[in-house]
Amino acid sequence: MSAQGLIDHARDFAIKAYNFDKEKNYSEAIPYYLDAAEALMKAIKFERNPQVARSLKKKAEMYISRSKELRDLLERKKERRSSAGSDDEEEDKLEGAISDIIVTEKPNITLNEIAGLETAKQTLREAIVLPLMRPDLFSGARRPWKGILLFGPPGCGKTLLAKATAAEVEATFFNVSASSIISKWLGESEKLVRTLFELSREKQPSIIFIDEVDALAGARGGEHDAMRRVKTELLTSMDGLSSSEKDRIVTVGATNMPEAIDGAFRRRFERRIYIPLPDFPARAAIYGFNTKGVDLADEVDFEVLAEITDGYSGSDIAMVCREAIMTPIRELDMAGAIDDVSIKARAVTQDDFIEAIEAINPSVSDDEIEKYDQWNEEFGSA
Q1: Is 35 in the same domain as 140?
Q2: Backbone angles phi, psi at 248, to 5 degrees
Q3: Residue 332 included in any domain
Q4: Do 81 and 202 belong to one domain?
Q5: Last residue of one domain, picked from the residues 277, 306, 324
Q6: Residue 37 burial (10 A CB sphere; 0-12, 13-18, 19+)
Q7: Which pLDDT tens digit goes with each residue over 172-219?
Q8: DSSP readout, 146-161?
Q9: Which range is least confidently modeled, 70-84, 120-134, 177-191, 336-350?
Q10: Are strands 102-103 and 172-177 parallel, antiparallel or unpaired?
Q11: Chain-wide mean pLDDT for the chain?
Q12: How far apart are CA 73 and CA 88, in angstroms?
């Protein structure tokens, strides 16, 4: 069989394995992962391109690693059944809830592809990427950071930065929404938090990203008893009292309200990184990113547009681009020519962008920016 034929077989096996894995039918997934790995290892023998061969080997090792993880998971479940009895059903339910927030596919963006935020990207690389890549260099007094807080105005790329960081390393990415955990699991939230950190240890290196972290880490006192237990469990887990110093787990929180975070949680977030509004070069780059594949007139000048939109967030500029590039489509529709495929939409002009900017105001006020600057000056890690 040719190398391509073996690669096609491996792809078929991998798809079946992934589907069983997604359905939590781990015993069925394991042999398909191993079959996929075996097919790729055979294909390597016929592959003459060293770069392709390395890529195939990396995939095969990934399938083997996942099969080992699933085998260990089944073994642990078997042990729990023999020791915990009726508690096993509850454990399965909690692990099922956690599995829904694991991003199994590697994010398709890297830190280098994010416009601007150079200081934040370098800090994240030093705090997360390097320790996960070279744990041997981060031991003893040079221990890695366990908690990172990304704070700043909404729409400036905090979530995107976290995903891009996970893409830089072979890490399991847990994408957690604090508000959904609280609303769906109030009463069992502390068990869910404990299970989250237990699974992160099993699948390390791991990045636990908690969006809207202020909802979980807000000031303590006067809250519901169940909420108090959740906060206590999260504090304990972030402290790593039940884990080893060698564990490669990083908790990354994102918030638009850093002032609402309790002092005890603020201490656990050892690096507090300010994600500000995009600067001039970043704004110009964001225009380019959000108009890819669209026919633009020669007169369109992203630098002029970037100058005009000083004070706009990244999401604000994305909305400006969406509004501007829809203008030619809107004109076709108003002219009754949208059904005629022979008529093409005109190129998007500079005036289209100007009109969109006039219609869309920035979402962050000067007072809010001043508030973030003050908090960063007092508590930030810059």
Answers
A1: no
A2: -105, 80
A3: yes
A4: no
A5: 277
A6: buried
A7: 788 887 666 665 555 567 777 888 888 888 877 788 888 888 888 877
A8: SEEEEESSTTSSHHHH
A9: 177-191
A10: antiparallel
A11: 83
A12: 13
